[in-house]
Design goal:
Jelly Rolls, globular
Length: 189
């Protein structure tokens, strides 16, 4: 819970009673390696905070799994369209190793927003943070070549490079596993 409280504190000062109230609305869930935690087509009713582990989001295109993103300790798990509009998700989430996630439900989060200006502000700041991360990801995909994208991944998410399946990494980078092998063989390890 300390990681979650520290994460929230980066965006908004919270008093002890606010922290306790928020903590009382969260639930801790543990997942096994390779467990699918959200399936495409499900409505996402909660938002998560990764306490430990590595996860990925992915979708199926023409029968192939395409990794959209990776999540590690201190990341937010949120399929925003499904969560905010309560619509079926187009993505799935999978734990790539044993993972622990704190969740808060849609209803509890909405209640906190209406109850407290601080929590409304906190939600806005976290959403801004997530939008910036998304913009950075899109920018990298459009402006960097595959070698640059791989080097960026090595620098920003070394645990992914060392632990995730190479097929998942390749699809995340928008290349084939063979291209990833060639990049690594050229010294981009």
């Amino acid at each position: 819970m300390n990681n979650l409280i520290n994460f929230l504190s980066n965006f908004q000062d919270l008093g002890e009673s606010e922290i306790q109230e928020f903590a009382s609305l969260t639930s801790l869930v543990r997942y096994k390696k390779n467990e699918i935690i959200i399936k495409s087509g499900e409505i996402v009713s909660k938002i998560g905070f990764v306490e430990s582990g590595i996860l990925r989001s992915f979708f199926i295109k023409d029968g192939s799994e395409i990794t959209q993103d990776f999540f590690t300790e201190k990341d937010i798990l949120a399929l925003m369209r499904s969560f905010l509009h309560q619509q079926p998700s187009v993505m799935s989430y999978q734990a790539l190793q044993e993972s622990t996630i704190y969740y808060i439900s849609y209803e509890s989060l909405q209640m906190m927003y209406t109850k407290s200006e601080k929590f409304l502000n906190l939600g806005r700041k976290i959403l801004e943070h997530l939008l910036i991360l998304y913009e950075d990801r899109v920018s990298r995909m459009l402006t960097m070549n595959p070698e640059e994208r791989f080097l960026n991944l090595v620098q920003t998410m070394p645990t992914i490079v060392n632990s995730a399946n190479q097929k998942y990494i390749a699809s995340f980078l928008g290349i084939t596993p063979e291209s990833l092998s060639r990049i690594k063989a050229r010294g981009f390890k």
